[in-house]
Amino acid sequence: MASPLHRHCSSLDEVIFPDQQCLTPEEHDKATKLFDKLIERFEPLQTSNKDYRPLTLIRLTKEEVSAEDEFLILFFTLIEHDHLGVTTEIRVAEVLARLHTFERWTSEEQNILLQCLVHFADYLIDNFFLPHSLEPTIGTPQHIPDLRQACLTRDRHRCVVTRKFDIREAEKRCKVLDGDNVKDDDGNPLLQEAKGMTYLEVAYIIPHSLMSHSDIHIAGESKLATHKILMMFDPKTISLINKTNINQQLLNTLTLTHDLHQSFRAFEITFEQVQDHPHTYTINYIDPNRMFRIHRLPITRTLYATPNGSIEPPSPQLLKVHHSIGRILHFSAAGEYLDKFIQDMEEMEEGGGICSNGSTRVDDYVRCVAFDYSALYAWVLKSPAT
């Protein structure tokens, strides 16, 4: 029997992140089968006027998370909240029992359900993917000298991708030694590389600004959702990022050239681990068909630890999460959507109120500044790129 129509929410902003629930093996199987049916039914119906593919984003996110039960619980409870227009607690078993007949619902009822799925994708964008795209300059490794120096030391003052040497470090060494005798960290002459050096930057793998609250329980609701979704990709992620010890913070850093840093922070290039080869990665553009390439990729690199082992290589878990986010953003077209969104918000912040194409995005702008990451967004607008 089809569910009666209810007033459904226009967004999930007021819904509290669901309490911890556990799925029985039977519930897991039912939830997985129902999820697959919903995606199979509605993914081909994604409206062309949407700036990204919301059902594809949902499907890819489920494929990439490791905590599948937690994602299914979030998915079904939030679309039920949206569909019923309530904010009270809902049990997954109740949702599964009500939705399993959705294929026999009327067209109008199915269209409302589709809109609830789209709202869930928007929820993921607002609470997870957009905050990852808004990395401020303040608090980045460039502004923490000890962290920057330790990262450069571990990575032997070379970009982990191109292996180009840091020109600042080379100039320092030239002031101490005669140019002909300047050597790199492995004792090799640097003079022959003089024309191939560049300025290097230290990049966070996962934006550290997302972890500005050490106690997740005192964070705002949006940041709480960001943390919990991040932990669905890997339960150890928060503990890896939220460290005060420099050696532990270094697990979340890489040394890159400026252009590679920009591509990496935009999830355009990612590191995919080579099986059975510790700390060895294939580095490539997330779009294998990308036409314009600054660097010739793919390339395989092994990441360094310090010779005495005091500083470990970058975290494989964090690089895997970064790779997963890159896949989701690319194949759902959400990456382009977020780039355009941020550009439009910058124009509105500057007082134009009108986007470059003559349209307005007032609703999106209001939604953006309503979330806890509004301060983070302001940092982006006021800070130069790093």
From TrEMBL:
Superkingdom assignment: Eukaryota
Protein name: HNH nuclease domain-containing protein
Positions of the HNH nuclease domain: 185-272
InterPro entries: HNH_nuc (IPR003615)
